[in-house]
Amino acid sequence: MKLTKIFLNGQEREIEAESLLELLHELELPLSHVLVELNGVALFRSELEKADLKAGDRVEILKVVAGG
After folding, report:
1. pLDDT per residue of the chain (68 residues) written in tens, 0 to 9
2. What is this structure's pTM?
3. Domain coordinates of the chain in residue numbers?
4. 3-state secondary structure 8-48
5. Under CATH, domain 4-63 is a member of which superfamily?
């Protein structure tokens, strides 16, 4: 499988995933508990399936925690 270099939470990383959805599965992160930005744009969950990754992309993944 081809490796792609991206920036994940500010650090360069080689990944096998070809889409954001695959990346979340690779990182074992549930869709319901994360906010994902691709190149500075926050995405809706429905957009994650369509978002392909390419070399040099900047991905920020934030875990969403609710509390009170």
Report:
1. 689 999 999 999 999 999 999 999 999 998 888 999 999 999 998 898 889 999 999 999 998 877 66
2. 0.88
3. 4-63
4. ECCEEEEECCCEHHHHHHHCCCCHHHEEEEECCEEECHHHH
5. Beta-grasp domain (3.10.20.30)
